[in-house]
Write a structure and sequence with these properties.
alpha/beta, 21 strands, globular, TIM Barrel, 8-stranded parallel beta sheet, 620 residues, 22 helices
Length: 620
Amino acid sequence: MSHDHLGCACCNLPHLPTLTSGLLTGTALSGELDAAFQQAYPQHAQKLTPQATIFHNGNIHTMAADGSDQVAALGIAGGTIIATGTLDEVRQAMQPHQASEVDLDGRTLLPGFVEPHMHILPSALYKSWLSLTPFLSAPRQQELDPEYSFKSISWRIGAALGQPDQLPKDKKGNPWVLGFGVDPSLMQSWEDITASELDKLSSTVPILLMNSSGHLAYLNTAALKAANIEDSPSGVLTEIRIAKALLVAPLPKLPEFIACLKQVLDNASAMGFTSVFDAGLGATDAPLVEIGLLKLAAHLGPVRIGAALFTKPDEKALDNWLDHYKPDLDNHGDQRFSIKAIKLIADGSNQGLTGYQSQPYACSHDHSIPEVPPTGLSNYPDTSVFSRMLDKAVGRGWPVLVHANGDKAVEYVLHSYDKVLTPRPGGISEEEAQKRRQLRLRVEHASLLNDEAITKMATLQLNPSFLIGHVGYWGHTFQQTIFGRERAQLLDRCHSALNAGMHISLHSDHFVSPLGPLRMMEQAVFRTMEGAPGKEVLNPDERISRMAGLRAVTLDAAWHCHMDHLVGSLEAGKRADLVILAQDPLDDNVRKLRDIVVEETWLAGVQVHSAATSAGAVTR
């Protein structure tokens, strides 16, 4: 089925071009933008000097690739790791730097965490909307709301309607309710949302609710009328059709948007992230503005930002990136922003019923999405177009991230990878094939992997990055409703991927699931279905060790992002990106890893987060 599909639930919002083109035009590109950033980052005028510091008397896990995991001390100076080893060895190496000493007093020191797949600008945009997500509020924002239902979100919408002066206004001055994060699949009882249901909340104030997947929007009749939409009486819009409603909906002001952007990155830092990877930059009609925004945010903010350039199913769009950019893979400077890869999207999201499957969703008779077949959507009805684009990007030396959720999407993605990575008569040489395979090519989400797919990925030296919340948050509904018990066993097969020799990473796909490296580690280690009444384990054979889980959010995540020469482990010569935890996540006695307090986060030798001075700073 051909579908005008700009992006996937977790990778790109089809309506983001509408929002950013409204936000970032005219004077916003110069003076107004500068003023907004200065307002958000007033402290940047005070240049912070990297500290010369020796850390000791704690659990210092280097995560070094050579296996030298735990050391007694670590020394940093000038934003760089100078030495690790015994306290005497580190003191000797640090003599030229006049270092102070930090007694960890039994706390744990790790390399800063790496988020290998999130979406920064969409996350910032949605922070200005009413939160209707299935997660609890801070400080429990990484926990499912057990009372989540259409009734509970209706109460929140009603409360917002009760304060009309606080509602965002459109260009005509009319108030709207804009809500984000609705997820019927995680409600106590799956309830399909329609215009008639929303009209009961208000028949006069336009209501626009975005599904957490980004693929769907729910509008009441007033919103349909405001957008002049007459062919969707159900009020359910899909994909690019959402943009028509957003053209008339309110937009946040630039200072508010920049403040939300800062909050996203500050939250990441408070979680212990020192590097984040935007897995879909440039999706709007103003890609250079997107790049400029993140570059500025990276230089002012508390995290490094790597990025993959989003490419829709259009060979000319890919050519534009390839002709004007080159991947920055091995710069050894203090990189705060770098473009690393190309991003292609094969299908949609499984919880949104748009992931491309070989057989219909188990719930297709009870729940369906307008204009979407029961087997979901492929972004490339003609897979030869996908193969050509993949070949072109890899042939030009670009690492590629390919989003694939459904098993049918995984199948055609791996078939295309095989075509561009395998030497054949009249094709690429063995030497060229090996060169291409060294690009650390990724399959994003790789949600449903059978044994054949795992074997093929390992043979082609491909590597999966798992949205591990599929197991922890959605595992129960996948097993009971969306896929059924047998197909759900194929979700996020971390252990099998490691056994096959692949590098794996864990990601949040934020905004889709909450930020939280220790939560992701916990969900991979225990695979508990948090929505299940008995908190059962989903396919216990796919649980991984604590060390493997920690590597998947540190060194291996950095490796996925071509950043491991700078970050991801505590080794001499690397950047002094560190996190100090109140407890050791490798301690078998600690089970609720997500509850471990992140006491300090350091970026390039500068403390950028302290729990002692930032209590309550983390928000949804």
